[in-house]
Amino acid sequence: MFNVMIVDQQKSNHEKIRLFLQESKQDFNIIGEVTSAEQAETLLEKTEVHLIVSDDVLPKKTGLQLFIDNSEKYPTMHMILFTDYTRFNSSKDVMAQGRMDFIFKPIRRNDVVKSIIHMSQIVDENVKKSNALKIVRASYEGHHNVFKDRFLINLLHGHIDSDLTIYNQMDYFRIPYDNSFTVGVIKLDHYKTYQLALDEEERQFLIFNALNIVSDYIESNQLGFVFINRYDELSFVFTTEMGEDDLYNHAYNLQELLASVQNIRVTMGLGKTYHRPMFISVSYHQARAALRNSHHLGQGSVIHVNFIPGKGDIAYFYPRDKEQLMIYATVNGDLQASLNFLDTIFEALKVDNHLPEHYYQIMIIDLLVTINRTALENGLSIEDFFKSYVRLGEINTIDNLSQAHLYLKDAISKICAYQLKGLQTSDGQLLEALYRYVHTYYASKISLRRAAQFLRTTPYHLEQIILNKEKQTFYDFCMDIRLNVSKELLKSTTESISSISEKIGFANPEYYIAIFKQHFHMSPATFRYDGKDKIVHHSKS
């Protein structure tokens, strides 16, 4: 039901307009009848009005001016205006907005009824859009922290290359800052007290609790801000100017807090201090480099990038990018690539002669946990493999580089074999299963990751099959199915194009029409009425 207001300086016309409204048989509620624009504006302030039926000739202010003055303030307000040709030319720009209809005097009953029906449909559609936007806005405000975290992650990894942009976004997200930036990274050393394959809920609770403890300390001391980075570590940014002694004191205070409140040991890496926010990413990578060299002081230590006992400045020797590629290759069952990356890592480790014996054990466990976590994130589970293969007692006996290398080679070989066994469904069968999946869920939000999880494979493996067999991307594969379904609906039903668009997963009918034209060189309406037998198929490039 939508609200209607009648505006006409001659009260005798109000009854006629009411009769026209009733004859239209639309779902409306007359919430007011007034004789001037001023009275109408008073009512607009009190009640939401969807449709104004008004004469253009009003005292002091015209009906057209009433709409122009209030259309931006009340975006769901529409108008049917009774006017004449001499005043119409000045109104064309307003009419182009699609929120106003004009009826020329003398007024005819049929014209008014048709206009009411027409405008009620527009009102209904615009009100739905407005309500949907309100829901989206409320959802956005409820997930504001998601966008804040995305900004902070991009900030750490150097994806924002302007000081002004960073300052503006910090202001928008109300992040406190000064002109000094020092990044620290806190790694939770939980392997001594928890199992190798950590329970997900327990792990997340552990990290979240640590975040609250660190956040309370940093906020109460007005030091800066803290959040969880993409490696499930805590990254903090001190934005107040401080000397190295103060920096160490705060770091040790955080360690003691986490140990006393949560009974957990942490290792902390600290980067250098910079005075431009663009260099936050540099300080972050320094802090991670310091963290990777924790073996020089042992776990549970605080390491600044500027100094390592006996070595001076930290060398950036550890190939973190190769480690990530090795993990991804292992999860996808690519044994040769994984072993090549592993060899590169151990060649780098040979350069350093200061690796203590416990470093190898920690490194192995760290890698295995990350492989398991990456597999879970891709919808795969290798929990059974870990239960049958990994023995912490065996790992604890490893005390040199060669033993660690051999152990990881064997473990990765077995993980890849385990993964390939689970992915041995033929490419053809997997493609058929994907077709059935997309054909079933085309109206939903389909993603490569969700499809891979449903088919018990990895996104990479599935995408490669589509590219090799169909010569198209996953997006194009899904789009072809959606458009073919829409063609069948256009042929076999009388449903509106808007309804068909919604059925195949398009929220915006105009976008659906544009995509249809791009693929078939004609609109859905043309295909339905004129082109059923003459359609031009879009060739794959």
Explained architecture:
- The protein folds into four domains: 2-141, 3-Layer(aba) Sandwich (Rossmann fold); 145-304, Reverse transcriptase/Diguanylate cyclase domain (Alpha-Beta Plaits, 2-Layer Sandwich); 320-416; 427-529, Arc Repressor Mutant, subunit A (Orthogonal Bundle).
- Helices cover 57% and strands 11% of the residues.
- The chain has 24 helices and ten strands.
- The protein has helices at residues 12-24, 37-46, 63-70, 85-88, 92-95, 109-142, 144-156, 163-172, 200-220, 244-262, 280-292, 320-331, 335-349, 357-377, 383-389, 392-395, 401-422, 427-441, 448-454, 459-470, 474-492, 497-503, 509-520, 524-529; strands at residues 2-7, 28-34, 51-55, 78-83, 100-104, 181-189, 224-228, 234-238, 265-274, 302-304.
- A five-stranded parallel β-sheet has the order 2-1-3-4-5, sandwiched between helices. It has a five-stranded mixed β-sheet with strand order 7-8-6-9-10.
- Strand 7 (224-228) and strand 8 (234-238) form a beta hairpin.
- Residues 191-197, 309-316 and 532-541 have low confidence and may be disordered.
Concise description?
This protein has 541 residues and is an alpha/beta fold. The strands form two sheets. A five-stranded parallel sheet has the order 2-1-3-4-5, with helices on both faces.
